[in-house]
Amino acid sequence: MNYILRNGSAYVNGAFTDADLLVKDGVIAAMGQDLSCEDAEVIDCQGKIVVPGLVDLHVHLREPGFEYKETVATGTAAAAAGGYTTILSMPNLNPVPDNVEALKVQLAAIEKDACIHVLPFASITVGQKGQALSDIDGLAGLCVGFSDDGKGVQSETMMLEAMELVKKNGSFISAHCEDESLLEGGSVHKGEFAALMNLRGISSASEYVPIVRDIALAEKTGVQYHICHISAKESIDAVRQGKRHGVNVTCEVTPHHIALCDMDIKSDDGKYKMNPPLRGREDREAIFEGLRDGTIDVIATDHAPHSAEEKARGLEKSAFGIVGSETAFAVSYTELVRSEIISLEKLIELMSVKPAAIIGRKAELALGAPADIAVFDLNAEFTVDPQTFVSKGKSTPFEGMKFYGRTELTLCGGNIVYRRK
Ligand SMILES: [Zn+2]
Known about the structure:
eight-stranded mixed β-sheet; binds zinc ion; TIM Barrel
């Protein structure tokens, strides 16, 4: 099927311009005013923005191994509903993709059920146990990069060896940075809220200590090094210093760390429990500064679905992780652009252009480019109702909150993968 996206405001070469887009045979075949095409369906985009499909560097699809939480089919449909056309899937699966055979199990599920592009990470260590390296040489050609997300690589020697091998293979590392010796068994940030509620806290040091370590290793090895879900102000400072020294380091922040801090936790509810936790007010300020000055490169969701039961045990006993695919754009747009912290153009960079660049791809509306496109209505305000989510996971701290920026349409490879009813 061919489409004309009519009268939208299109993001082209870093700026918004009024233009129609003709999507034909899976690519953007024409851009301009008053386009026509005999066999194309015309879709009215008046008053809406038309942007390159969003790219999420951090998604938990849960298949194979944990299909009761999410599947490739439901997770990619949820991402499409959020305007995403490319997502990177994390390897905390069963089997863990630490060897080619195991990775092929996930690749087969992706091939069969994914409605958008899914690029899987392989694990850095066998079983994500931190004891021995995965078959990095064998896996590098089949995966987008390497991550032990969910766990930090505790041993410095192991991380150094991993970086050397990953560098040799021309791949990259996406690191979940967490020093287990500094965790103290907490469920929320070690700060004001934890003190008030007499809860054990997760220290910022458990995040920034391994980040400082890894940036030094990345400098030594020259590997492309990306940091998952950065949350603490000290971590952001470390990345800023690293970039100044010319280290090949990038980092992501989640919409929930952008929108909330620990004192926003309203009740003893698992929907406020994620790792890293919601940090302090000053950390959130540091995130804004990091986004403004380019220290923080991208927004990624850390979409981490769990069953209702796993999230119903309160702050201390619920599983870590919340869903994010279907609210990421609206939350980020409302919190950052409507609050005039960054421009709309910058937001598209953070959610589409830059994450694509980190994985060596292009996200752009250009003649002949693949028709991976999202359309958002920035003026549409809506209340987050998890029961309407496509994802199997329903746990989100944004439940009941109002945001602007509704997904209207998502095209992947020229096919409609989401259309608001
Ligand atoms: Zn993680």
